[in-house]
Amino acid sequence: MLLGRKPRVRRNAAIKGENFRWPNATVPYEFKDNNSEELDYFFHLFFELFAMLCCAYAEWQAIIRKGMYKWQKETCIRFVRRSSEKDYAVFFKGGGCYSNVGRTGGRQYVSIGWGCEGGGIVAHEIGHALGFWHEQSRPDRDRDQGAIFWPCPVPKNRVLQGNFEKRNDIMDSDIPYDFGSVMHYGPQAFTNNWKFVTIETKDHRFQHTIGQRADISFIDVKHANRLYCSHICKTNLMCENGGYEDPRNCNHCKCPPGLGGLRCERIADSTPGCGGEMFATAAWQTLRNSVVGSCHWRFFIVTNRPTIQAPSGRIHVEVIETNFVCDSSCADEYLEIKHTKNMEQTGFRREPGHRFEYLSSGSVKLHAEIHHRWFHYDSNKARFLANSDSIPTPPPAAWEGNGGLTGLLAANEAGIDNTFETLILKDFPRAIGRNRGGANIASLFGILDSFLKHVRKSYVEMRANLECMSLLS
Questions:
Q1: Do 135 and 218 belong together in one domain?
Q2: Average pLDDT over residues 393-408
Q3: Which of 114, 234, 261, 296 is the most buried (most CB within 10 A)?
Q4: Is 76 a member of any domain?
């Protein structure tokens, strides 16, 4: 599939206009340890204090380069140290995580402040600088399997509400909405109460897919390659299942996760001891797995076998047991199910400890992946069969995310749920481009008070958990 083909018009998350693109897919950049031109004296001291508690300047630069590398290794985009270029990006330790969308001309700032020091979070901000809005800003977000946004308990601040609005200055594309995009906000973005979600997916099985900050997704990469690299490959390799010619090697197809082969026509290789093709029949079959690594299965029905009775060609999978660690946004360890013919889109990612049922959507194939990073003594268990009957639509899932300050304090790049953006944007809605002036002491103490309340709450919960564990031991 050539990058230039657009058989169905959708809207991706890229801002319209070639003037917002970086020429020759090259982003000149500089590092700056602070931005005294943008922040007043007291704000500068505040963030410098926390910067000292987090990481050294050299480590901070290395984290930013890690975020750059996530884009560079998958696309033709290059990041180079600025020499004399007029248009360039300046990375600095400002008040949180933020960036302009696209090339604005001249010097533009990308803030990677305290709490933003993760490769996936940096990749998110770089995505903005490359020209991408948040995925939930796409005009087609409410179509098909798009996201529904519940404004409670989002603050009434008009600036914050803009994060939940659809945008019209976005390019047309055939690339589907991606719940697994690094540009998608998490379930609790800007919430005032961690017991509630502010972003609820229309299909609740995607609820733990949104908000990951482990890496850029396949669709993120495809967006960037279409935006900056579509002129490179001139051949048509007839890539399948959403694959396309890799601009870094035009003789190979770039395949969605879980697929491989010359044209993305087969299942990807798995960690030895797991994965493979599974043939669904009219009788239940059980699948167990305890392998640490990446395991890919493809479930399908061979319709020319007379013993298989599944007129609609649908496959019923019931997940009985799972044993892995999964935060509110499953990124490092997860079970992922792709139940439609669309293999580009990130599938359902589920948290452990619950029983679930899946039915393929009008297709004779269903794809499942399990990603384990750590060893577990218990296995994952599922059963499957060829089944023409439907199963009930799953009810709205009760929120069971860890929430809170975990991602903020650990500067964890996976499943951070925009916690730090909440603290910063709630108290600094105009942190970008504000004139140098007197210190806003009220705002400063407001942030300190908010921060200490979060820390105090997390400490109390931690002590309660430790006391509970001591009683059980």
A1: yes
A2: 41
A3: 114
A4: yes
Ramachandran region of residue 404, left (φ > 0), alpha (ψ -120 to 50) or beta?
left
Sign (positive/negative) of CA torsion 230, 231, 233, 235?
Answer: positive
Quick one: DSSP state of residue 60?
Answer: H
Same-domain check for residues 312 and 167: no
Note whether 216 and 93 are same-domain residues: yes
Supply the DSSP symbol for 132.
Answer: B
125 catalytic residue (yes or no):
yes
User: Is residue 450 domain-resident?
Assistant: yes
Which one, of 364, 167, 397, 353, lies nearest residue 279 by Cα?
Answer: 364
Write the pLDDT tens digit of every residue in 282-298.
788 888 887 888 888 88
> Which segments are annotated as binding site for Zn(2+)?
124, 128, 134
Same domain, 442 and 419: yes
**Residue 435 CB neighbours (<10 A):** 8
What is the three-class DSSP state of 422? helix
**C-alpha distances in Å from residue 13, one per residue of 104, 125, 177, 178, 233:** 17, 14, 9, 10, 23
199, 109: one domain: yes
Own/partner pairs, 56-61, CB within 8 angstroms, 24+ separation:
57/33, 59/117, 60/33, 60/93, 60/112, 60/117, 61/31, 61/91
First to last CA, the chain: 58
The reply to whether 294 and 260 lie within a common domain is no
The residue range of the domain holding 238 is 232-267
Q: Given CA atoms 395, 396, 398, 402 in this order, what sign does their dihedral have? A: positive
Q: Which of 38, 117, 125, 351 is catalytic?
A: 125
Please state the domain count of the chain.
Answer: 3
Q: What is the CATH number of the domain that holds 260?
A: 2.10.25
pLDDT in tens, 416-445: 334 334 333 333 333 333 333 333 444 444
User: What residues form the annotated binding site?
Assistant: 124, 128, 134
